[in-house]
Amino acid sequence: MHDTTTPPHLDALKVACSACNLRELCLPVGLSDEELVSLDQMIGARRAVRRGERLFHAGEAFTALYAVRTGFFKTTTAAEDGREQVTGFQMAGELLGLDGISTDHHACDAIALEDSQVCMIPYGQLESLSREFTLLQHQFHKIMSREIVRDHGVMLLLGSMRAEERLAAFLLNLTQRLQARGFSPSALVLRMTREEIGSYLGLKLETVSRTFSKFQDEAILEVKQRDIRILDQGALQQVVNAANC
Amino acid sequence: MHDTTTPPHLDALKVACSACNLRELCLPVGLSDEELVSLDQMIGARRAVRRGERLFHAGEAFTALYAVRTGFFKTTTAAEDGREQVTGFQMAGELLGLDGISTDHHACDAIALEDSQVCMIPYGQLESLSREFTLLQHQFHKIMSREIVRDHGVMLLLGSMRAEERLAAFLLNLTQRLQARGFSPSALVLRMTREEIGSYLGLKLETVSRTFSKFQDEAILEVKQRDIRILDQGALQQVVNAANC
DNA sequence: CGTAGTCTTGAACTGCATCAACCAATGTGG
DNA sequence: CCACATTGGTTGATGCAGTTCAAGACTACG
Questions:
Q1: Quick one: pLDDT at residue A12?
Q2: Nearest nucleotide (C1') to the CA of residue A201?
Q3: Where are the alpha helices (DSSP H) in B89-133?
Q4: pLDDT at residue A2, rounded to an integer
Q5: pLDDT 10s digits, B80-123
Q6: Which of B96, B123, B154 is the last residue of a domain?
């Protein structure tokens, strides 16, 4: 159970940003050593979230952001009538909970898709620390802005792409993020079900499944349940950029 | 041409936040008098944007946010293949340009749908001022977060609603925002074309037009080109919450 | 080892897109 | 001030992408 990089007698649930291999992907990007030490003091306990468990849920009081340390999450919003939509998938180094700042209450559910660990970032402390450190402030603003840009990209996808284009774009986005984390650009294991992919992409699970099969028939992918191997990345890219030719 | 509320010999293009009737809807919400004065000094010149003109465009260097003072805007993102998506409509008191923080370059186009005026908010100054004033910092974070929540709502709409539900939700959202600005909750003039509504809602303009006609047949709306009168708001609400019954 | 959850595939249906014609409003130049 | 062009909107007929319903196969986990 012990993290081998931290002495067992110390708080094993706390991980210093300065010692974290995700610091170049996460909130601390570009911070000085001095700033990193301050950030270390702010980061709260690490929290383990089991597969299927909710990190937070809509309506819950917002007190902290969470940085994914290991594992994989989905976020979902629900309409009053019960309709649910997956609004994103988050992997190591990505931030959860930004939607909560708006009303001091979380606006979505965050659910672990595999056993995961997150670092708690008490929001009040982040605000005061970012009044002190310009770079931290700027980095935090960039992360929020990036989330807005990402969401606009999803709106484009949902508003104007066809099923094949959506799935191709989704796979390319996933592999790109995995590659940034040192994983292979051509092999991935999906952590989510066809239904969750469908919800995110505005499709039914059957359509997702059929489209996977179609890509396999066309020798673009090799699909074995959740194990995906990309045989022809260029073809995937072409599917996305095809528009209505 | 002169604004009757400012002496003609002063900089007629500059409007103080402290004297602006939008301050309860805009960035200054909840600020103290002292903070308002500082904000006044920061706000750059007011800029007029003619109908059809672009306030900024994707790729342009990002230097400032813009608060809509009067008028109406749309924002659009484009994929590499030319596909375009309307990502939002902005009215008085709403902020434009948040997407630019992410990369120091704007990620979308902002186009005036009627002759408009915006207040320029130099971004560097906003960051330094928000290091000084906790409330301003917090308010700015809330606005960014609200944008994220809004986008997630649009994703829900695009991903899981049918044409009628989308248009009903759109109209209710518009009237709600107009009502917050003192306009009637039951009569509105659309500033955008059917095509722009369609792009925003992930529908073709013909579908938008047909759906307007259907609502008119059902005595939910009275539609005269861009003049819309809501005859039965409850029915509209029901259309949105109908789900798949 | 069995049962529940997940995935695949087929067949029929449907909501929206597409294509196309027409109309109304607004603008333009002679 | 009228003829004509342009832009935006409506409506109809037809087609198809993706949904729905259904049945069966695979897999994983207690």
A1: 53
A2: D18
A3: 123-132
A4: 43
A5: 988 999 999 999 999 999 999 999 999 999 999 999 999 999 99
A6: B154
Task: For residue B192, tell me if it sits in a domain.
Answer: yes
CB contact under 8 A, A85 and B146: no
Q: Which nucleotide is nearest, taking the CA of residue B205 and each C1'?
A: D9
CA of B207 to C1' of C25 (A): 21
Spanning CA of A240 to C1' of D16, the rounded length in angstroms is: 20
Which of A106, A141, A173, A237 to mutate against chain B (most B CBs within 10 Å)? A141
| Total number of domains in chain B | 2
Here the CATH number for the domain that contains residue B119 is 2.60.120.10
Q: Residues B164, B174: contact at Cβ < 8 Å?
A: no
Question: What does pTM read for this prediction?
Answer: 0.94
Nearest to A98 among B80, B103, B145 (CB): B145
Q: Among B114, B134, B154, identify where a domain stops.
A: B154
Q: Are residues A24 and A139 in the same domain?
A: yes
Burial class (CB in 10 A: 0-12, 13-18, 19+), B28: buried
Binned at pLDDT 50, 70 and 90, residue B44 comes out as confident
In DSSP terms, A56 is beta-bridged to A110
Instruction: Check CB contact under 8 Å for A202 and B158.
Output: yes
Smallest CA–CA distance, residue A50 to chain B, in Å, is 25
Residues B112 and B174 in one domain: no
- pLDDT tier, A88 (very low <50, low <70, confident <90, very high otherwise): very high
Is A1 inside a domain boundary?
no
| CB–CB contact B107 A152 (8 Å) | yes
What integer is the mean pLDDT of B134-151?
A: 97
Name the token pair of B23. Answer: 């301050």
Residue B1 lies in a domain: no
Please report, for the domain that includes residue A238, its CATH number: 1.10.10.10
Residue B137: its chain A contacts at CB < 8 A?
127, 130-131
pLDDT over 70 at B13, yes or no: no
Collapsing DSSP to helix, strand or coil, A99 comes out as helix
Domain span at residue B188? 161-244
Q: B212-216 — which CB contacts under 8 Å span 24+ positions?
A: B212/B167, B214/B164, B215/B164, B215/B167, B215/B168
Q: What are the beta bridge partners of residue A64?
A: A122
